[in-house]
Amino acid sequence: MATDVKVPTLGESITEATVGQWLKKPGDTVAADEPIASLETDKVSVEVNAPVAGTLAEQLVAEGATVEVGAVIARIGEGAAAAAAPAETVTNPAGPAETPALKSDEHAPDAAKEGSANDSALTLSPAVRRAVLEHHVDPSKIHGSGKDGRITKDDVLAAALAKQSGASVHEPEARAQSTAPAQAAAAVKPTVPVGERAEERVKMTRLRQTIATRLKEAQNTAALLTTFNDVDMTEVMAARSRYKDLFEKKHGIRLGFMSFFVKASALAARDVPSVNARIEGDEIVYSNYLDVSVAVSAPKGLVVPVVRSADRMGFAEIEKTIAEFGKKAKDGTLSMDEMKGGTFTISNGGVFGSLLSTPIINPPQSAVLGLHRIEERPVVRDGQVVVRPMMYLALSYDHRLVDGREAVTFLVRIKEAIEDPTRLLIDL
Predict the structure, then answer these.
(1) Do the strands 344-348 and 367-371 form a parallel or antiparallel pair, or are they unpaired?
(2) What mean pLDDT comes out for the span 46-55?
(3) Does residue 272 sit in the same domain as residue 419?
(4) Whether residue 88 is found in the same domain as residue 70
(5) pLDDT higher than 80, residue 36
(6) Is residue 221 very low, low, confident or very high in pLDDT (cuts 50, 70, 90)?
(7) How far is the C-alpha of 11 from the C-alpha of 15, rounded, in Å?
(8) Which end of the chain is more exposed for a tag (fewer CB within 10 A), N or C?
C-alpha cells in the first residue's frame, strides 16, 4: 500500500510553496525521514522528508510547480523490491538485442553499480548544482561533508580551489574533470554562436519575488533617509589582533568585527530608543531588547536571520550565532523561526568590497545600519595628517519615527564605541 507524501506546515501565514528540486527519483529507495524534495517558500527552502521507509513510487508534481500546504506531491511504496524493476527495465529494455553493447565494455556493470551507490551523494541542491557549473568541477570526485554525505557549496568551492592550485601540474586531469559539468551546462543553456545577441528568461524564485515586494513596500510606505559617518577602526583592529588567538582558543570561534558593531548598536539604542522601535497603526512600539537581523547573502537572495536578545549576549555568543546563520544560509537550511522578527538590521556590504551605500530598511523596522569596507585613508589627528584604517557607516531610517538629530546621535554613539572599545566594557 502506498503512503502519501504531503507538503508540511511551512510556518505562520505561509500557505504555498514552489517545488525547487526533487532529491529522489521514482524507483529510488528512501529511508524514513530522508529528504526527497526541497520546497522554496517566501523566506527559506524547506526539505520534505519521507514519512516512511520504502521506494519512491511516483512524483505527482513537477519541479517549479506551486503546491499548497497539505497537498500530496508523491507516493512511497512498501519495501525496496520495486526499485529493481525500473532499474532492470532501463538497463536492458530491448532484451537480448542489447547484450552486444554491454559486452563491448566489460566494466560497464561495475560502473553502473558504482553510479547507483553514489546516487544519493550526488543529489545536488540548486545552489550546489549552480556552483558545480560555474567552477567546472566533477561532483563525482568531491567528498560531501553534508548530511548523509551530500555535497555542500563549500565542498564545491574547496574542490575548485584545489583544482585551480594544481592546474599546471595536472592540467590533463583538470580538463577531464571539467568535461561532465561543461556538458551539463550545455544542456541547461542553449548554445549561442559567438558574436550573436541573446536573451535568457528565468522565472523569479519565490524568495526573490518576496524580496522585491518588501523592498518596494518599504520605499512606498516609509519616509526613507540616510545619514553617514566614518569610523577609525584602529583600536578595534588592534584589540582583535591582540586577543584573536586567545579568543579562538577559549571559545572555538574567530573574533570578527560584527560582534563589536552589534554591541555598539545595543549601547546606542539605549540612548536613542526610536531607532529600535516600529510604527503599528497610530502607535509607536518601543522594544527594551535588541533583536538584530543580520543581512546574509544566500545563493537565492538576501536573507535576514535574527540574533535574538543580542544586547544580552557576549562577543563569543554573537560570533557563534552569526557564523551558524552564515553556514545555514549557504546550505539553504535556515528555519522559519530563525527568520522571524527583528527590531534592527545590520548589513555588511564591506565583505563584498562596498565603499558606500544607502541600505533600505526591513519593514516593520525603522532603521538599518550599513557597514562598508575598511580602507586606509589620510585623516587629521592632533594637527597631523596620518593614515588610518577608516570605514564609512550609513544609517537608513524611517523619518516618520526617527528624527535627524536622533539618527546622527545614534551613529555618533557607535563611532565613539568603535574608536574606544573600552566603552563597550564599561557601558558608556
Answers:
(1) parallel
(2) 84
(3) yes
(4) yes
(5) yes
(6) confident
(7) 8
(8) N
Phi, psi of 277 (to 5 degrees): -110, 180
| pTM given for the model | 0.61
Nearest to 9 by CA among 20, 19, 17: 17
Q: Which of 179, 203, 227 is the last residue of a domain?
A: 203
* Number of domains within the chain: 3
How far apart (Å, rounded) are the C-alpha atoms in residues 158 and 164?
10
Query: Do 352 and 224 share a structural domain?
Result: yes
The verdict on whether 403 is a catalytic residue reads yes
User: Is the domain of 281 the same as that of 415?
Assistant: yes
* Active-site entry in 251, 399, 420, 427: 399
Residue 395 shares a structural domain with residue 302: yes
Alpha carbons 254 and 245: distance in angstroms, whole number: 8
Options 372, 403, 420, 427, the catalytic residue: 403
Domain closes at, from 52, 81, 114:
114
Helix ranges (DSSP H) in 145-286: 153-165, 171-188, 206-221, 234-251, 258-271
Q: Which residue has the higher pLDDT, 179 or 357?
A: 357
pLDDT tens digits along 267-304: 999 999 999 999 998 999 999 999 999 988 776 667 88
Are both 316 and 340 inside the same structural domain?
yes
Question: 92 and 17 share a domain?
Answer: yes
Q: What is the pLDDT of residue 108?
A: 43
Provide the pLDDT for residue 185. Answer: 43
φ and ψ at 410, to 5 degrees? -60, -45
Mean pLDDT value of segment 407-416: 95
Q: In what order do the strands lie in the sheet with 45-49?
A: 45-49, 35-40, 16-22, 66-68
Residue 283: its pLDDT value, please?
92
170: domain CATH number?
4.10.320.10
**DSSP string covering 168-204, please?**
TTSHHHHHHHHHHHHHHHHHHS----TT-------PP
Please report, rounded to a whole number, the percentage of residues in the chain having pLDDT higher than 70. 77
Strands 375-381 and 384-398, sheet pairing: antiparallel
How is residue 136 written as a grid cell?
567546472
**304 and 420 housed in the same domain:** yes
**Dihedral sign computed on CA atoms, order 79, 80, 81, 83:** positive
Range of the domain at 35: 1-114
